[in-house]
Amino acid sequence: MSPSSQVRFGIIGCAEIARKVSRAMNLCPNATLHAVASRTLAKAQAFATANSLPPTTVLYGTYEALLDDPDIDAVYIPLPTSLHLSWAIATARKKKHVLLEKPCAVNVTELDQIISACEENGVQFMDCTMWVHHPRSRVMADFFSDPKRFGQLKFIRTCFNYCGGNDFLENDIRVQPDLDPLGTLGDAGWYCIRACLFAANYQLPKFATALRNPVYNNAGVVISCGASLLWENGAVATFNCSFLAHLTMDFAAVGTNGSLNVTDFVIPYEEKSASLSILSNSNFDEMSLGWTEKPTEQVVKTELPQEVFMVKEFSTLVNGIKNHGLSPEKKWPTITRKTQLIIDAIVASFSRGFEPVEVY
Amino acid sequence: MSPSSQVRFGIIGCAEIARKVSRAMNLCPNATLHAVASRTLAKAQAFATANSLPPTTVLYGTYEALLDDPDIDAVYIPLPTSLHLSWAIATARKKKHVLLEKPCAVNVTELDQIISACEENGVQFMDCTMWVHHPRSRVMADFFSDPKRFGQLKFIRTCFNYCGGNDFLENDIRVQPDLDPLGTLGDAGWYCIRACLFAANYQLPKFATALRNPVYNNAGVVISCGASLLWENGAVATFNCSFLAHLTMDFAAVGTNGSLNVTDFVIPYEEKSASLSILSNSNFDEMSLGWTEKPTEQVVKTELPQEVFMVKEFSTLVNGIKNHGLSPEKKWPTITRKTQLIIDAIVASFSRGFEPVEVY
């Protein structure tokens, strides 16, 4: 691979998740981590040391300085959500491609400004939902689209929970109203909503209705909630997301002819292998003593972790724009926008007495 | 075991499910199938032949004749739901113990009349929810009650679906408004609701809210629906039940310290072995690349199918009353009543624009 096809990344903000993504950039065949910026040079240096970044990595003490670096093609932005609007737009205006952490914006109005800025400046936009890039997700998508093995989608049940602990629940960025006002809905819920869209082949549901159990922290940020989504064809999804329950990442979908169960859909139990349980065309056996078919466990091996596949896909698109005159791929901002639209509808449902809110 | 400790059963009604339960009675160490009644003697004879019942089985052409048989201790009633009120009460008045198919009644008012008749006549009442008698359910209950491995209950997600097919959806007893007016909610939903109660240690939820997706057949019977249940301590359950989706029997519960997944909770895939997947005290590993602990699959072997354990438990209680002067066990009608209360609340939620309905 020629050096010019290597996409050179900058990272603005040294969040915990940046450790994982910077590692992915250095593992990725068509990407390089070129520079890291924090609000002080000392913080950027500490991050570089803690993560054993190569000494060639350029370090900056301001985000602006990184955005001005002409050697950078693309910027990964793991900043708190409320800062995404200004920094993602600033990145796009510097003609740098935008890899943006989720939740991408505090609402779809702000997201649209970010996406418009990317479009106007001809740069690729992608959010950091890693799991959809895992090879397992391709196997899941093939199953969902198979009329014989899965059929018409009927039900989705998903959840993403983890126990934040007391310090987390009061002090983490994800529960600060001025930083991540969407709380668990924007964090864990983002993945559940994406799973619902994924199973529905990215068709938007018609209505979102919040479940009547949101829990808020003292600052008024939601730390546990759920919702149901209803599609025009009758398919229904329910999900829960929470900082108050044991680590759970279930994704189950039922069609007319089959069903799928995955219990680690956001982050597989281990890096190099992930499994899914599928069942098709089973029925009660004679006298309903058992089932005619049992689920089969399908294991998907992978040499690279899912976040590397994400960086690789993004870098391939960036390379196409940079070196081959291609246009930015609209699929990714479109999916991001659908996810954010559903979040907005659920937030509206919270404030409208848990009534169903149309998603559009 | 002395002959007198053998509980002698009669069956009124030759429903498909009676095949499975009559087999269970003949496999059960403390029960005997003494007699079968249908609306005609020919039907009873056909049932006896089709199921290879021993020639000693007494056959009746009316239900009344069976209830008058002094050799019968207990009666299993697999009749359509709308007939439960009169026949369960008639059975109790004949001082015969009542093993009643689910849904037990069309509403809790009728159920209360049945339970009262059993109490007044000193006979045991139990519904036919088989899965709670499987040895696996004891393992599940132990897990749920373990503060270290499971902790405080937070979420329950369950479903029971199967594809009825066109003929079933118009003609089966379970979709006739004058026979089984509760449709899939009383049939498949019954099990989901029981699972929710089971995970909550049989504490009633405070509110039941129907999901906004019920589907009705031409006769107005619900053939697909769902609901959320909300407990006073914040625990939340969501479930779907349907005659329109592929066979699925998922039961997942999440506590503060652990989670459980079972995908065949109503009828295990096979008779002699059933499994559950449990996980406790897991967390993200370093950099959230994977999980610190993975779920473990626990296999529960059993020599007898779950319906035999149900008949055995019921017969043990009947034997205690009959031969040892014990009182009927109130646990079983209490659990039945809680299940029916939730069904009634969901039906009320359907008719009240999917508003939450208090369960009491």
TrEMBL record, chains A, B:
Domain annotation GFO/IDH/MocA-like oxidoreductase: ranges: 148-260
Superkingdom, taxonomy of origin: Eukaryota
Gfo/Idh/MocA-like oxidoreductase N-terminal domain residues: 7-126
InterPro entries per record: Gfo/Idh/MocA-like_OxRdtase_N, GFO_IDH_MocA-like_dom, NAD(P)-bd_dom_sf
A Gene Ontology molecular function term of the record: nucleotide binding
PANTHER family to which the protein is assigned, alphabetical: GFO_IDH_MOCA-LIKE OXIDOREDUCTASE N-TERMINAL DOMAIN-CONTAINING PROTEIN, PTHR46368
Family: Belongs to the Gfo/Idh/MocA family.
Protein name listed in UniProt: Gfo/Idh/MocA-like oxidoreductase N-terminal domain-containing protein
